[in-house]
Amino acid sequence: MFSKGSKPVAKIDTPSGSDGGKQNSGVPSIISPDLKVEGNLTSRGDIQLDGTVEGDVTSRGLTVGEKAVVRGALVAETIRVYGTVTGTITANSVVLASTAKVDGDITHRSLSMEAGASMSGQIKRLERPIGGESATPASAGYSGQAPAKPYSA
After folding, report:
1. Which residues contact 97 (CB under 8 A, 6 or more apart)?
2. Domain limits of the chain?
3. What DSSP assignment string belongs to 103-130?
4. Are the C-beta atoms of 120 and 102 separated by less than 8 Å?
């Protein structure tokens, strides 16, 4: 019971230790309405943006809330926009809700726009589906500047 010999120590595996952090809990990361982020966000899971983000966002699934403001490139498998985005959007599936305001180009495989959604920019078909970690704002063609305004007479 009180021997001087050493006893084996139990090894405790954490979720990030057992699979390199690749496990997705199914719960989205949330940027709340009172939070302002200056910098890029990257997640292997889903992100719900309700605050302000000045930077690029890359994730599996992305929802831009009705009061959210994003200035940067968005890259995800699925993107739903209810708020304001200034920058490029690249996704397999893009949904613009009636409250969405987008100033930038959209590259997609599937695009849905509800009546009332506002969009200024070019719409392009995505050649290859987005999946995994290969998609980045740079590979999506985002230069960090607002898109050029089309010529109007």
Report:
1. 66, 80, 81, 82, 114, 117
2. 26-125
3. ES-EEEEEEEE-TT-EEES-EEE-SS--
4. yes
Question: For residues 129 and 56, what is the distance between their CA atoms, to the nearest angstrom?
Answer: 19
Q: Which pair of structure tokens corresponds to residue 133?
A: 């970690």
Region of 60 on the Ramachandran plot (φ > 0 left; ψ -120 to 50 alpha; else beta): alpha
Token pair of 54 as six digits: 């000045």
> Residue 77: CB partners within 8 Å, gap ≥ 6?
60, 61, 91, 92, 93, 129, 130, 131
What global pTM score does this model have? 0.72
* H-run or E-run covering 49: strand 46-49
* pLDDT tens, per residue, the chain with 153 residues: 445 554 443 332 333 433 444 555 678 899 999 999 999 999 999 999 999 999 999 999 999 999 999 999 999 999 999 999 999 999 999 999 999 999 999 999 999 999 999 999 999 998 888 875 445 554 444 444 444 444 344
Q: 74 vs 4, 26, 69, 125, 126, CA distance in Å? A: 60, 20, 12, 16, 14
Q: Is 16 helix (H, G, I), strand (E, B) or coil?
A: helix
